Every structure is written in C-alpha cells, then in structure tokens.
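Annotated sample (chain length 122).
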Amino acid sequence: MDILKIAFIFMLSASFFGVAYSEEEAFKYNTNSKRDPFVPLIGGAASQSKELAYIESINDIRLEGIIWSPGSGSLVLLNGATLKQGDIVGVVTVNKIEKDKVVITVNEMDYTLTMVPDEEAK
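Output written by the structure step:
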C-alpha cells in the first residue's frame, strides 16, 4: 500500500512540474551547423521515393537491389528508393520480396522483377 502512495505522489508531482514522458516523441537531431549524420550523403530522406511517385508503367522501374532476410525485414531498392513489403508509393506496391526477385503491383497489374547475376549482366 505504501508503494502505491509513493507512485501516486511521484506521478502527481511529475505532472505538476511539467515532466511528461511520451514514447511517441520523435528524436530531433540538433546539427549545430554541421551535417546531420542520419541523412544520406546522396539523395536525402525526402527524395528517396520521389522518383517512384512519378512512375507510369513497369518500363519506368529499375530493380537495383534486394536486401533479403529469411525471416522478416527484407528490403528492395527500386529507382533509388528503399522499400519494404507492403510499401505503396504512387502507383507502385511492393507485394513480396524474395531472395532473388520481388513481386510488385504497378497500375493494378502484378509484375515479378528478378535480379540478374553479375555474370549475366555483362
């Protein structure tokens, strides 16, 4: 019972002095006139999916890489944008990522894009 009283007093005093804890608060990096190390050197966070937003057909898409994980967390690099399964950018939806191919939807049509090994690309 004493522990409950102490916890109640702590919560009451924390709210009185304006101390609040929120898991949803985003971390904001203070650059102090220096480059933000969390922003890519090439492209930048805002421009990564900009090119995909203007896709009109499958002919406009470049499969540049797949980062595959047997469990979850696989990523695909399409036109410079890093996407995960379920991501939607413009008319492009990433449906499934496999070790050497990705299934996407473009304008409500499904397509399978396959990585070409280096020997075959030459």
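Annotation: The mean pLDDT is 76.
Annotation: The helical segments are 2-16, 118-121.
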